[in-house]
Known about the structure:
This protein has helices at about 5-15, 30-105, 115-120, 125-215, 365-375, 385, and strands at about 110, 115, 245-250, 250-255, 255-260, 260-265, 275, 280-285, 295-300, 305-315, 315, 325, 330-335, 345-350. With about 400 residues, it is of the alpha+beta class. A hairpin with a 5-residue loop joins strand 9 and strand 10 (about 305-315). The protein is rod-shaped. The protein starts with 5 loop residues before the first helix and ends in a 14-residue tail after the last helix.
Amino acid sequence: MEKKSIKIFAILLIMLAFLPTSVFAEDLTFGQLQDDLARAEKELEENNQSIDESQNQIDENNETIKSLNIQIEQMSKEATKLQQEIADSNIEIENKKEQTKDLIAYLQMSQGENIYLEYVFGSDTITDMVYRLSIVEQITEYNDNMIKELEDLIQTNENKKIELANKEKEFEQKIKDLNNEISKLNSSVSKLGELSPGLEQEVESKKATVAYYKSQGCSNRSDVIGRDCAVSSTSTVFTRPIKTGYVTSFVNYRWGSFHRGIDIGSSLGKNTALYSIGTGVIKDIWTDNYGALCVTIQYKAIDGKYYTAIYAHLSRYASGIYEGMKVNSNTIIGYMGDTGKAYGVHLHLEVWPCRIYEDKQCSSWNKYVAFAEEQFNHGFKGAESVISFPSRTYQTWYNK
């Protein structure tokens, strides 16, 4: 009933999301556990591969953006150069126009005399006259051609400017699209990266589960868990409170206080039925100070001792249970939950060898708490000492 690590439960929830329904079949085989491990390993490998592919695409996009920015910078310089050429050409055109105007003014009649005619008809010979006419026409034509060439150059440069501007817009749009793609890829990498620890934890958990059942004599793929191998020990005092589950935390000192219960999780979450661990009597159906739904059951076990078991954090009680009701290992008393001071759906189960509120050593709550701690310090580990649980956390079992 102590505060749990949010991180552990977050990873646990991710792990449990990937457990196939076949895992909870009545006749689970060792081969199915091996296949489940192989599936988890493949999923982790595919996840890591997706991260690598996304990162490679991000790197490629960044290189493309870098290249596009260089080209945009070059086009900007070229556009500046074109603008200067246009300006220079306009000045040159104006100069040529002025020269043509001056030439025409010179050749036009001045003070009643036609200088042009005088120049032409002042020739000594017809050949000289033709030559003089040709000179005037050539000068005028030259200026006209120069102006035409400059105007063509200006138009060409204007067209180039438009083309460069369009290319800049095209490249800027490409950069924008690439940046959007990078943003999406980064988001994908982030999500895949968040998933990786859970997948890694899942693989490690499944490896541990396969190793555990191998140590329990499971070797053939056809071996049925709980029948052909990993059969529950007959030396234990009580049965497990759920059919399929795993320990998330054992009785121990943590976060500056003594944690009296063993914490148990299940992939079925709030649908996990909680069974009485043996034959006994429901002594109390209650809610603790934090709002956790609890059930207290008293047992006289096969070893002749009396035990008190407290089930905490239930999501709801089983229909029809009541105080004073006799129960056995097939009796469902409620369902796993996260009521009260709990961070994640789980069962907090306390089992200590005394009758709470009856025996002298635990006649009050404070005495019960002190008794449990004293028992632990003398080697009794609570539920772990009287129920067969895997020795490590997150090793799943499949029978009571």
